[in-house]
Amino acid sequence: MCDVVGEETGAAAGEVTAGEVEGVRAFWEGLRLPGLVDVHTHFMPERVLRKVWAYFDAVGPLTGREWPITYRLAEEQRVEVLREFGVRAFTAMLYPHKPGMAAWLNAWGADFAARTPDCLHTATLFPEEGVGEYVRQAVEAGARVFKSHLQVGAYDPNDPLLDPAWGLLAEAGVPVVMHCGSGPVPGKHTGPEPIGRLLARHPRLRLVVAHMGMPEYTDFLDLAERYAGVHLDTTMAFTDFTEGAMPFPVQARARLVELGDRVMLGTDFPNIPYPYGHQLEALARLELGEEWLRAVCHGNGARLFGLPAE
């Protein structure tokens, strides 16, 4: 088994030490990987990100607990940190909370991807008039992944306005990373039931369930077993921060091995209350084997997004 990643961070807020970088790189080098593929990282317009950080700082109702931002850095510094860690490909998870916002975020996401070649071109959507058209435009412009946040957006994924968008994304094979579980607190449209109805109508949709679907882990594992296009990302799952409140059931770990080709590394960088390496350490201590770790931390994401071999 590869070495466990250390949790050293710098003395100043957001500072990353050489020891932290070495620990992350030692993790994937020990697995004989060319790097990491992280399907759940956040980059967004600066004024939007500042509002997100202010929400976390204020212990907003969707968090309900202290949540320090570990990587509170300028955009170019955050990109450089991921590169130093050896993250070969990452995303810019954008999400609107009201109508009229998604198309603007998509324009920003396209520009960010153009100037950040290791970021997978990310787009988003919201149930509103014209959503089918701007989703089509984003796909034609090269979007490789979409983000949907049912908790923050407070919308039903089965809203008829979204049907053209889901159909287009299913046909194009573009993955959608969706925060659809009810953690950290339930929303009106979170949970497995709305997703089951969505997949019944769009069974070919490539859906990546964020946060392993916490806390309804087993229900989302059921959906992954039923639909071949359903994947799960590890974002914040299995970490000390999450296990204390929403532990992953030990008896379900064997199912993670059975679905080992559809579990992918996600972290929530930079908006995490612990060092990046702790997510990797949390995966390693599941003791599901090196081949499972290799697939989760690189192989599955590389395959889903068609990354060239290195």
Summarize the structure in short.
By secondary structure, the protein is an alpha/beta fold. Helices cover 41% and strands 10% of the residues. The longest helix has 15 residues.
Using the CA coordinates, give the radius of gyration. Answer: 18 Å
Percent range for β-strand residues = 5-15%
Strand order of the largest sheet: 4-5-6-7-8-9
Specify the structural class.
alpha/beta
- Measured between the Cα atoms of the first and last residue, the distance is 22 Å
Largest sheet, if any? Answer: 6 strands, parallel
Give the SSE string. Answer: HEHHEHEEHEHHEHEHEHHEHH
Query: What number is the mean pLDDT?
Result: 94
Uncertain regions spanning at least 5 consecutive residues: 1-11
Give the total of beta strands.
Answer: 9
Helix content range: 40-55%
Would you write up a description of this structure?
- It is globular and about 50 Å long.
- The model is unreliable at 1-11 (pLDDT under 50).
- The chain has helices at residues 18-30, 46-57, 75-85, 102-115, 131-140, 150-153, 163-172, 192-201, 217-226, 240-243, 253-258, 276-284, 290-304; strands spanning 36-37, 87-91, 119-120, 122-124, 145-149, 176-179, 207-209, 230-233, 263-264.
- It has 310 residues and is of the alpha/beta class.
- α4 (102-115) packs parallel to α5 (131-140) and α5 packs parallel to α7 (163-172).
- The strands form two sheets. It has a six-stranded parallel sheet. The chain has a three-stranded parallel sheet with strand order 1-2-3.
- It has 13 helices and nine strands.
